[in-house]
């Protein structure tokens, strides 16, 4: 049987926790779905048939693109071009490593922090992040003098799994252990719900992957990430 994380976006968009954020089903017979605009550009189709690929092409794209993450990349939908393609390392938590003693004040982030979260993500580019992405799950941050300098949270939620995402730190606040401490806070909440934590990293990001290994993650599979847009020149 296919693993649920082989198709993390489709399984999140059809899950008990995030199906309410899926759009596109009524218009195309449920063959292709995406996250509601503002939450993310991730999209998926039920399969790689011509009808499903055509349904993908018909999804609304107010951001100008959609993104897919699959174990096996399907052909580009008709009339769409691959703007960017990359190999991701998909990692799952095996056993959370013991915490190191650190004097780091971590606090939950709220709707009032949304502008600062978007600004930090726009600066550091941890992955696609929009004005409602922070509503996909619990986020935590570190602040200096009231300014958000690091954060981490949750994104995709296939049944039984939760993705750790949005991990970033301001360039002036790196090297202080914030990323690992924030991820641990997020992971502990995932484990307390009886779920498995997972994440994605660019396969060539050796520094990030080393951090994730140190936390207790292991690489499960290589995934194909693509950003697609209507028309245009491919990358």
From TrEMBL:
What name does UniProt use for this protein? GNAT family acetyltransferase
Signal peptide position in this chain?
A: none
| Listed InterPro entries | Acyl_CoA_acyltransferase, Bact_Acetyltransf, GCN5-like_dom, GNAT_dom
Boundaries of each N-acetyltransferase domain copy?
Answer: 104-235
| Origin: domain of life | Bacteria
- UniProt-listed Gene3D superfamilies: 3.40.630.30
Q: Which UniProt keywords apply?
A: Acyltransferase, Transferase
Q: Give the source lineage, highest ranks first.
A: Bacteria, Pseudomonadati, Pseudomonadota, Alphaproteobacteria, Caulobacterales
- What Pfam family is a match for this entry? FR47
